[in-house]
Amino acid sequence: MPYDQLIHFVKEANILSAVESLLDWDSETMMPERGLPARAEELSMIAAIAHERRTDPRIGDLLSRLDGKASNEQQVANLREVRRAYDRATKLPADLVRKIAHVSTIAKDVWGRARADNDFPAFAPILSQLLELKRQVADLIGYSGERYDALLDEFEPGMTSAEVSRVFSALRGPLSDIVRQISTSKRQPDTSILHRHFPRAAQETFARRMAEVVGFDFSAGRLDVSKHPFCSGSFPGDIRLTTRYYEDFFSPSVFGVLHESGHGMYEQGLPAEHAFTPLGQAVSLGIHESQSRMWENMVGRSREFWEKFFPEAQAAFDSLKGVSLDAFCGAINTVKPSLIRVEADEVTYNLHIILRFELERDMISGTLAVKDIPDAWRAKCRELLGITPQDDREGCLQDIHWSMGSYGYFPTYALGNLYAAQFFAAAKMAMPDLPERIRRGELRPLLDWLRSNIHQHGQRYRAGELVQRVTGQPLSIEPFLGYIRGKFFPVYGL
Ligand code: ZN
Predict the structure, then answer these.
(1) Cα-to-centroid distance, 261 and ligand 1 (Å)
(2) Are 107 and 130 in contact (CB under 8 A)?
(3) How does DSSP assign 390-404, residue by residue?
(4) pLDDT in tens, 27-82
(5) CA of residue 292 to ligand 1 center, whole Å
(6) C-alpha 413 to ligand 1 mean position (Å)
(7) Which positions are annotated as active-site residues?
(8) DSSP-based three-state secondary structure for 8
(9) To the nearest whole number, what is the mean pLDDT of the chain?
């Protein structure tokens, strides 16, 4: 049967990618330093074989033979997504792919040094080169609106610049207003309580406990330590989370683990019978991020959640004894415009993303020249956040993405926040007692709701259609703004 043959090829390629990601996980968590040279060879060989499998002309032949012949909805979805992946992989000539890999490896290194030296001009030439290569990629992949669409589509299939722009334009004004109101409020939480001493061993136990209470299944996953936290996994029965511990800061491990658990529970909820095919894979980066943000922020930073778990935190950490629940909830929900995206709170975060989207869209179209990026960054930062970076380290050199050739990636973070709020509002409509359940520490009903509405479908629907089906509405900023006002105005006495 051509369909079964096709699925066989697709699985082979995806299983090789799974091996690749396991090797990657190992490099970040377990591998001794001197293992690196061999690991680099192992990874590049697996990547090369996987690429060969993904671009095997037999996949193209089978796709042509199966065109219009899907016999059910599941086949429709698998064929649609296999076709998309095959087209993306085969439209780019091998020497262009190699060139981009080569240039971005150098660019990452150049960027690292340019950032350390606060020297944007040192990074500018290779950034120009990368942008030119990515324009070629966009032109080869094709697009109906603008070039940037072809790049965005890599991370958020089906999303367009026009749609992102519509949503972000509507969001930037109201969000900047909210940030201004919060910044000028007389009531400001005391964040120093999060910077007391939190022994590492106690953090490890507590972080693991947090993952368990939200529903991460440790019989189908692990939690380890890495320099940068991540979630990796290609099969629902084996999902790897990582985190890091700072003894002088409570938040990174606890909220980092809640965040990665959100990603991990999505992966654990994908249908195992469709593993290694699109129906067994996550919809998009934006939908993935909606799961992590919901558990980290909407659940994990809610007052209801800590009504149940703050006594446990106090029992685990002497530093929290004598701290009131109000003071704690204020501290973990502090909003303050800052220059660094990865340290941003959930209210200002999307403004950081809007800034990057507006700039990179112009960088790809060519209306923003590379030499003008630092000034454009400062101007937008002032406009959106009301603050201006003193140097490019805190400005346009702060993120690694552009040096990796990842353009169109940033919007998925903000889309994740918007999807999360929209899903969470729908979950509350479906389960009016959800806040009460969270207050009792009963988090299973929310996970079950996510499982049946989102996880179990894999890539059956694209993000836009999924949002419409689950919430009865297209992507909207209102649930997010409503959530932000409802949560932060009380904290700041507004
Ligand atoms: Zn994430």
Answers:
(1) 10
(2) yes
(3) SSGGGTTTS-SGGGG
(4) 999 999 899 899 989 988 998 899 899 999 999 999 999 999 999 999 999 999 99
(5) 6
(6) 8
(7) 260
(8) helix
(9) 96
Q: Which residue has the tokens 């890599």?
A: 154
The answer to whether 172 and 119 are in contact (CB under 8 A) is no
Burial class, 94, CB count within 10 angstroms (exposed 0-12 / middle 13-18 / buried 19+): exposed
What is the DSSP annotation of 328-344?
Answer: HHHHHT-----S-GGG-
DSSP bridge partners of 222: 240
3-state secondary structure 431-444: CCCHHHHHHCCCCH
- Residue 341 · residue 199 · CB < 8 Å: no
Residue 69 Cα to ligand 1 middle (Å): 37
From ligand 1's centre to the CA of 427, what distance in Å? 21
- The residue with tokens 């502090």 is 334
pLDDT of 94 > 90? The answer is no
> How far, in Å, from the CA of 425 to the mean position of ligand 1?
20
Nearest residue to 141 (alpha-carbon basis) of 342, 474, 407, 327 = 407
pLDDT of 159-178, one tens digit each?
999 999 999 999 999 999 99
Distance CA 404, CA 478 (A): 33
Single pTM value for the model: 0.96
Q: Could you give the strand order of the β-sheet that contains 221-225, starting from the edge strand earlier in sequence?
A: 221-225, 238-243, 231-235
Sign of torsion over alpha carbons 279, 283, 284, 288: negative
In 3-state terms the chain splits into helix, strand, coil percentages (rounded to 5) of: 70, 5, 25
Q: How far apart are CA 213 and CA 316, in angstroms?
A: 15
Please, what's the largest Cα pairwise distance for the chain? 69
Output the six-digit token pair for 305: 């959640």
Q: Which amino acid is at 345?
A: D
> DSSP secondary-structure letter at 77?
H
Query: One-letter amino acid identity for 309?
Result: F
pLDDT on residue 10: 96
Whether 148 contacts 161, CB under 8 Å:
yes
Distance 463 CA to ligand 1 centre (A): 16
pLDDT of residue 367: 97
